[in-house]
Amino acid sequence: MATAATTASKARAPTQEALYLWEGRDRTGRIVKGEMRAGGESVVAAALRRRGIVATRIKKQGIRRGRKITEKDLALFTRQLATMMRAGVPLLQSFDIAGRGHANPAMARLLNDIRADVETGTALNQAFRKYPLHFNALYCNLVAAGEQAGILETLLDRLASYQEKTLALKGKIKKALFYPITILLVAVVVVAIIMIFVIPSFKSVFASFGASLPTPTLVVIAMSDFFVAYWLWLLVGTVGAGYFMVQAWRRSPRFQMAVDRALLKLPLIGPLVRKATLARWSRTLATTFSAGVPLVEALDAVGPACGNAVYQDATRQIQAEVNVGTALAQAMQNSTVFPTMAVQMTSIGEESGALDAMLSKVADYYEREVDETVDAMSSLIEPIIMVVLGVLVGGMVVAIYMPIFKLGQVVG
Asked: For the whole prediction, is pTM greater than 0.70?
């Protein structure tokens, strides 16, 4: 009985997959090579036979985990697939080429799995929908529209351009925020080191003076005593607060709305976030609408893609109004979060029948605005940070040395 139960449990256990390199001959006798993730050599041989390939060599390789699949990996794959299909390369062969040539093993495995689904007759958009972490609704809907209209390579090309522009926009925002955040983190570390290790050493020296200390020095010493006594709690509290905010932002729509609304009101960051959001909103709607997706359905993908809860909520409101016959420009104006220029350009696009072209121009305009805002922020934030750091660190240094200067004057 025990033996039978053990055998049954082994039979139910999932087969451990591995990566196999194979070589064989196709129906024309041409030598072909590739790789496949499967549960055994017999599975690889059977899969190759279904493709009309007689395997001559199958070699097992250890599966490399690879790094995480990024948006850049997906954009590169989309561009490669669009280019190969436009050149007349069959879909399955395009997946083979893209998978074998990819530097990220995780991405190569993903493409191999999608290729296997397509090979069994699954539509390409349905194969993509099985991996929602990597291919969102916008991506799958555009691929589905391309398959239905017979212009898959054209829509893949538009999708690749959209992904590349979105990545470039995110890169500009990261560029604008990376420098000040890095400087502030370094400043926090430096101040903490001074408070915890440097000032206590001077405190013991000041105690031997036997004289009253200046007020700035007393304030800095009191702050140092607080840091020394509670530095662990401060560190745990800061990390805990950061973790709580990240989890709340991910799980609570109300908290996410509050954070995004606050971001839009910040003096320097707010205009940058607003322009970047408007650029993504316009670019996404232009891409989906130009692919032949009806406007109400296109708005489904626009809200999540814009990356801001305020504009996502406004998009739902716009979609509801457009669904009952309101013009898009009027619905945008009613939401009160779109500037006059974007509303007027949209109105002109609706009246002229070139809505996608006008939305693309709106996206181009705000992408240029993001470039100019990033340059302005870079030139403005740097001197502000230097002044703040100079006052902060310089003030502590002066407060520490004031008693020494006072002692020197007494001795002199």
From this structure: no
